[in-house]
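W.,

You were right to be curious about this one. When I first looked at the sequence I had no strong expectations either way, so I just let the prediction run and decided to look at it fresh. Below is the sequence, 428 residues in total, followed by the output.
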Amino acid sequence: MKFTELKREKNPAGCDRAYARFDGVKVRFGKWGPDTEALPETREKYNRYVAEYLTTKQAPVTKNSDVTINVLVDGYIDYVKELYKGRTWEDRKHGSEVDVALAFKQQIIPLYGTLHPDEFRAKSLLAVRQSMKDQGLYRKTINKRVNWIQKAFEWGVTQDMVDIVTYTSLTTVKPIKEGEFNTREFNVVVPVSRADVDKTLGQSHPVLHDMIKVQMFGAMRAQDVRLMRLCDIHETSNPDIWLYKPHTHKKSYKNTQADKNGKVIKKKPRTIILLPECQDILMSYVSEHQDTPDEYFFSPDKAMKMLSIQNRKKRKTKVQPSQQLRKTNAPGRRYRACYSRKGYILAVARAAKRAGVAVWRPHQLRHAGATYIAEKYGEEMARVILGHDSVETTRIYIDPHIKEKEYDNKIFEAGLHILASRASKENS
């Protein structure tokens, strides 16, 4: 944050003016006065702007300064980055606030970047939305970006960059509803077939192999399996039931409880039941991480080391001395502590291509897992493990062609009993 003291600007045609620079932006504050000091009201206005600048960490801008939509959007992006500065990369979900802000900048700047924000009205926003549609973006993506453009102008009102009338005009542009304006829609997510999963597993390294199976048998989201740690897994009195409480998840920002005064007093965790199928796979990871419970189970670094050992065993010729020296001298590539969202998607896609099957995404495993659990334990068990309040929501994930049969409800009843007892302890 840089700003200057009040300076005198010579005006041959009349009274001199007072100005200062905030982060390189020149801001005028009125008349200088006949003496060497600025007028009291000019000094008061300057002091007020300095106080606002130090509070908001943004350069104060007046209606008379050279404000453009480019300046507005850049300032808003800096504000969003500062707002979510404390969030780690693993907590950010797809389409995060910073990513969306950078994305809509590419839509609005080429058309209206040099305009004053107050010249941008509802008709202008409709033109930007149409340009997104012409680019082939999906309906939900368009609505998200339009909403953040409106948020940027709302922030501009608080910074005296935008008139409230301009922002009100933009709020009249409503989201596109399904079926309107012939806008593209996302394809419905379907479960990946068990045959494709088995072929993909045959072309996966051991770590990815275990990740895929744990996610499917636990009907988890990809984030849940990527961020799995020993400290988040809890054994119960029933050996067939383990409870997994991810330290962060998709709805963690919503799962809060408040007292009568509105103060948040407790965060309600997401609880996933790990069935015996998951326990058999995770047993080796639990033993390995007894001394490091905070480390992630599925590490890219571990995966690459195991892959290197496998390739070394398959090698038929001797390793050249130059290659051995290069390996010891070079620090090598550094990998993340756990798989990123894109890294996991890419690893699955590459394994599917090697297996000669259609490329599928990890989220389809949640649907495949829901189908597997519903077929073996029943729809109600699938609802509990997926964390849904209604069976109707769970049926969206389940293949409708599975056959009805008699289920073994022992594990289901045990899981419900443990969840109820844990919930009563947490609330007490």
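Here's what jumped out at me. The two ends are 48 Å apart (CA to CA). And, maybe more interesting for your project: The mean pLDDT is 78.

Coffee later to discuss?

I.
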